[in-house]
Amino acid sequence: MPMEVTGFFTAILIGLIIGAAGRLVVPGRQRIPLWLTLVIGVVAAILGTLVAGAFGVADTGGIDWIELVLQVGFAAVGVAIAGGVGSRRR
Question: How many whole angstroms separate alpha carbon 58 and alpha carbon 86?
Answer without folding.
Answer: 33
